[in-house]
């Protein structure tokens, strides 16, 4: 072996040893980032297709083992259901009719309730409350299975409230498509849906979110889904109207969530554009996670939560990676820097890698679940509402403490190409003696799917988590001393 090869070999050996050294993480109950409110999902579009499937409701909204299409799945235990007030209707208003995008698929045309502008009375013939039956049914099934938070959100105003009668967007994606003359009607529509849900559906919405990715410049007339560009200036005009219309209907306690921007950086700019009066109308800041590895999560947490005093949710995330590893990495980034108190996936059932369960949405046929389902289950089943999220100091490690049950959950992500180890210090949590430890592991590129792991022992208040490459592992430690 030549000198160069010898030096390279020594370097690789040392690198391997250094890599094999466990990463030290200390869990401290005094260093935390708030109570966890829950995990969720949006119901459109999948519920508009599969909203009568009780097995899917069980799989989404319970933690039972559920058989879906013959395959046993660990229930996700979601507690947040996001209901979409649709924008599509096919009744003409004189010679005026809805304009349809050339490429939108039927299952993405969500039916709306206010059919024409002749009357704002929800009991009049201008309204049809029988539409969108499957999405409404899944909302009910979610509640029956223990969901606690229900968010009403809008992708677009009703088609006839837009400038060009098109609920997919305007002729130019950078132009606002909510007609100024219908801003009040849009507020009336959202408030009427919220009131109807409380009176007749048995659903009390806990937030209402008027805008979906409003400053993004991809909502145009031939878009693949419903959408509407709404500039910060127009948002600031509409928000007081939404508040007024909710209050008129006795919904003074229903907070407004805004502004559901696509990117963290969009959310920062929109928030900073609002004056104090506008900010006071907002009870919760929602943001979507589509900026993935980019964007200033920490600044959004700073301006919206620490300085603005608002609850912060990541209300929508999705990607096309069927393994779930990309999703998990972005979830860890969120918990470390954004520090939301809830996290929701966009479409649990969707085409290809976007779905936790892929499906032929047009034909209503499910396919075999992606590993992504089992990756998400590692988090949703074991970090439950009311737990305190602990600040671990390591992006790869998420921890949550249930004070009442004296239980701590630790989730480690290894999305690298070699094995990794973590040495977890529990001594500050009162972990002495031999607490009960249970573990689960998913290897999306391998065979394990939410598989129970071997025994882990605590010695001197520490334990070691060893993960193979491309894997997620959860351990739950019970029996902590008080």
From TrEMBL:
Start and end residues of each Endo-beta-1,6-galactanase-like domain: 24-252
Coiled-coil residue spans: none
Keyword set, alphabetical order: Signal
Name of the protein described by the UniProt record: Endo-beta-1,6-galactanase-like domain-containing protein
Keyword Signal belongs to the record: yes
Extent of the signal sequence: 1-20
Keyword set includes Membrane: no
Highest taxon listed in the record's lineage: Bacteria
């Amino acid at each position: 072996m030549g000198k160069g090869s010898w030096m390279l070999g020594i370097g690789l050996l040392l690198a391997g040893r250094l890599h094999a050294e466990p990463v030290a993480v200390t869990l401290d109950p005094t260093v935390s980032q708030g109570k966890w409110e829950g995990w969720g999902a949006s119901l459109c579009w999948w519920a508009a297709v599969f909203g009568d499937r009780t097995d899917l409701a069980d799989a989404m909204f319970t933690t039972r083992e559920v058989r879906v299409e013959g395959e046993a799945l660990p229930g996700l235990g979601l507690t947040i259901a996001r209901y979409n007030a649709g924008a599509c209707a096919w009744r003409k208003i004189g010679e005026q009719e809805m304009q349809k995008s050339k490429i939108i698929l039927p299952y993405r045309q969500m039916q709306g309730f206010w059919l024409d502008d002749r009357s704002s009375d929800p009991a009049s013939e201008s309204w049809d409350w029988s539409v969108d039956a499957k999405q409404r049914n899944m909302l009910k099934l979610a509640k029956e299975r223990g969901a606690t938070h229900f968010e009403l959100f809008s992708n677009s105003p009703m088609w006839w409230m837009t400038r060009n009668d098109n609920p997919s967007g305007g002729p130019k994606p950078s132009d606002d498509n909510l007609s100024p003359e219908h801003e009040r009607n849009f507020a009336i529509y959202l408030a009427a849906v919220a009131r109807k849900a409380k009176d007749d559906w048995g659903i009390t919405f806990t937030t209402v979110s008027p805008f979906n990715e409003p400053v993004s410049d991809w909502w145009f007339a031939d878009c693949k889904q419903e959408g509407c560009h709404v500039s910060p200036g127009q948002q600031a005009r509409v928000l007081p109207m939404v508040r007024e219309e909710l209050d008129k209907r006795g919904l003074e306690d229903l907070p407004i969530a805004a502004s559901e921007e696509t990117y963290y950086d969009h959310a920062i700019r929109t928030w900073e554009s609002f004056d104090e009066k506008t900010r006071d109308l907002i009870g919760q800041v929602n943001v979507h996670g589509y900026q993935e590895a980019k964007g200033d999560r920490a600044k959004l947490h700073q301006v919206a939560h620490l300085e603005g005093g608002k609850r912060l949710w990541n209300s929508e995330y999705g990607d096309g990676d069927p393994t779930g590893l990309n999703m998990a990495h972005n979830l860890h980034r969120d918990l470390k820097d954004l520090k939301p108190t809830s996290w929701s996936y966009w479409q649990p059932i969707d085409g290809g890698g976007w779905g936790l369960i892929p499906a032929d949405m047009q034909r209503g046929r499910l396919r075999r679940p992606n590993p992504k389902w089992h990756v998400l289950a590692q988090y949703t089943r074991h970090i439950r509402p009311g737990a305190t999220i602990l600040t671990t100091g390591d992006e790869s490690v998420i921890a949550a403490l249930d004070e009442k049950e004296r239980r701590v959950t630790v989730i480690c992500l290894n999305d690298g190409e070699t094995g990794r180890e973590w040495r977890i210090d529990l001594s500050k949590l009162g972990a002495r003696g031999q607490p009960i430890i249970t573990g689960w592991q998913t290897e999306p590129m391998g065979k394990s799917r939410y598989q129970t792991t071997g025994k882990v022992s605590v010695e001197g208040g520490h334990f070691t988590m060893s993960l193979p490459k491309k894997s997620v592992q959860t351990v739950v430690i019970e029996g902590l001393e008080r």
